[in-house]
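[retry 2/3] Signal peptidase I: previous attempt timed out, resubmitting with same input.
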Amino acid sequence: MKKKLTPYQLSILARHIEQKRRQQIWRDSLITILIFSLLVIGTFLAFFRVWQVEDFSMLPNLQAGDHLLLAKHKEITRFDLIAFDIPGQNKQAIRRVVGLPGEDIRYYDDILYVGSREIPERFLSEELLAAKEQDYQLTQNFTLQDIRGTKKQRIPENHYLVLADNRSFGMDSRDYGLIAKENILGVASGIIFPISAYGMMQFRS
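[retry 2/3] Signal peptidase I: success.
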């Protein structure tokens, strides 16, 4: 014959069961949060990375110390900012895409020409105006044939011509040649630090 539990014992048992139930809920919740966090981190690392600007080559649009969010698999278009491994150097940089595969690029009198078309660079409008008023060139004249390692009339497939926004001082394709797609680390999506600068980066003209 089973011994009947007293009300007090039933109360203790009920509290114990409730405590176990709450502990299980907490464990399940923590496991769910952990799995979700790992999925979020894994997805972020698969598609994005954070990049810190380390020099002044992209002035006036990027400052040293700016932190950018790079999209690893974004399609590259003209005037995108891309991070990449510098050809022949153990260094990385971020520059602006000016020339795309298959294009004939040249600069003359501070005007970008793609074939015979003039392409305005609105992200440098103030600097171009200042250069004109002070009678100097922001971007020295050059053609695609002047680019290091380039003998063709057009940019080869899967290669890009990049320039620094700080045209007079920043090193770019004029110094180290075209950038192969395989060496590109990502396309800048926005400034994530400092927070006040978020969304202020000019991607295209």
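[retry 2/3] Signal peptidase I: The helical segments are 7-47, 125-133, 173-176.
[retry 2/3] clearing retry counter.
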